[in-house]
Amino acid sequence: MKISYEQLKKISQDYGNSFYTFDTEQLKVNIETFTKSFTQRYPKVEIAYSYKTNYIPYVLEIIDSLEIAPEVVSEMEYDLATSIGANLQEIIYNGPVKNRASLSKAIINQSRINIDSLDELNLIVEVLAETQVNCLEVGIRCNFNANGATVSRFGIDVKSQEFEKAIQMIKDNKVLKLSGLHCHLPDRDLDSVEWRTNQLLETALKTFKNAPKFLDFGGGFFGNDFATPREDAVSFVDYARVITNLVKSAYPSPDDQPWIILEPGTALVANTMNYWTRVVAVKKIESRPIAVVDGSIHELSPNGRQSRNPTFHVQLDPSTDTPSEPWHVVGYTCIEDDYLSKNYLSQISKDDFLGYSHVGSYNIVMKPPFIRPASAVLELDRNGEVLNVIREAQTTGNIFSGFRNER
Ligand SMILES: Cc1ncc(COP(=O)(O)O)c(C=O)c1O
C-alpha cells in the first residue's frame, strides 16, 4: 500500500501527529506460513499466540478466528482471552506469578496450566480442592540452564529435587495429570532452538513411559522479514525442520507421538504494524541537522533504546529529494537519548512524515505513560483511507483516572 502526503496529513489532523497502522492481511499470511511450515512436516502441531507480545483486542479476535489458541501469563491476559470469546479450555496459562483468583478461573475452566514452581503447584492443589473439578491436565515449565549466556529464571530446574518432587506430587494427586512439558527461551537462533528441543525431549523421555500428550517449545522465533535485513535470520521452515526432525527421531512411531505446541508472538505480529510520526521542527545543533518529531523512542522501541532509520519518508515537498546530510530524528520526551534515528541520510523538512515498519511486537504493550499518552492504532484500506480505528489515541483521563487526591 502506498500512502500519500495528503492522506497522512488528513489522518494526523483526525488522530494526532503520531499513529500506528495495522495490516490484517499480513497477520493472516504470517499465521498461515508459520503454521504450514510445521504442519507440512508433522501432523500434530498446535499454535498458541503469546498475548503479551501485542494484546490489542482487535488483533486477538482475528487470531482467535484463525483457530490459534491464547497463551497468557496474567489474570489480565486471562480475562482478555475470556472477553474476546476464546475457547477457555484451550488457553495455555504460563508465567511465574499466577494469582489465586486467576488459577481458580483456569482450574474451573480446565485451561492448560504450565506450572512454574513448587509453590505454584501447592497453590493449585489448594485451589483445586475447593472446586468440583475431577481431572486437571497440567504441564511443567522446565528450566534447563547450561546453555552458555542465558541463565533462565523460569520454570523448575529439571536437575533438581524440586522437579522430582513436583512430578511425585502430581502423581500422588488423584485429580492432577501431568500431560506434557514446556520451555521457552528468548534466543532466536537455530542453535538455541535445537538445544532447547533436545533438552525438552531428553526430559520427556526420562519423565514419561510413552510420548506425553504435548511438548510445548514456547516462542522465541524471528519473523520472516525485518526492518533492516539480518544475517542471522532464520526461516520458519528451518525452525520447523529442526524441531520436527528431533521430535520424530525421539518418538518415531506415528502412534505414539506428542502434540508439538508453539507459542510465537514476534513471528506473527512484528511486521503487521508501522509507526508514523510528523516532523514538527527542524534545527541545527553544532552544524548537525535535527528533525524533532511529534513521537518518541518509547513508541518505536520496546526498551526505549534502539534507534533506527525510518522505512518511509513522505515529504511535504518531494522536490527536496536529494539526500544531503546525516540527520538525527529526536522525540518529544525530555530524555537526552530520545533519538528515533541517528545519521539518517536524507533531506527532512518541517511537516514531513517518517514511517517506521516492524513495530507490532512488544511496542504497543511496553509504551510507558511517560510524558504523554499513547498514539492511536488504525487500519487503513488499500487506498490509504482509515478503515477502522483499532485504538483511539489515549487521553489524559485514561492515564489519570485511577489516581485519588483525597487526603
Ligand atoms: C512463555 C512464553 N511464550 C511465548 C513468548 C513469545 O515470545 P516471542 O515474542 O519471542 O515469540 C514468550 C515471550 O516472552 C514467553 O515468555
Describe what you observe in this structure.
With 407 residues, the protein is α/β, with parallel strands linked by helices. The protein has 2 domains: 5-22 and 271-400, Lyase, Ornithine Decarboxylase, Chain A, domain 1 (Beta Barrel), CATH 2.40.37.10; 24-269, Alpha-Beta Barrel (TIM Barrel). Helices cover 30% and strands 24% of the residues. It has 12 helices and 18 strands. It has helices spanning 5-15, 24-39, 57-65, 75-83, 100-108, 118-129, 161-172, 190-207, 236-250, 266-269, 297-300, 396-400; strands at residues 18-22, 45-50, 69-72, 92-93, 112-115, 136-143, 156-157, 176-182, 214-216, 259-262, 273-285, 288-293, 312-314, 325-330, 339-346, 353-356, 376-380, 386-391. Strands 1, 11, 12, 13, 14, 15, 16, 17 and 18 form a 9-stranded mixed sheet that branches. An 8-stranded parallel β-barrel has the order 2-3-4-5-6-8-9-10, surrounded by 7 helices. Helix 5 packs across helix 6 (118-129) and helix 8 (190-207) packs parallel to helix 9. The radius of gyration is 24 Å and the shape is elongated. The site of pyridoxal-5'-phosphate has 15 residues, from helix 10.
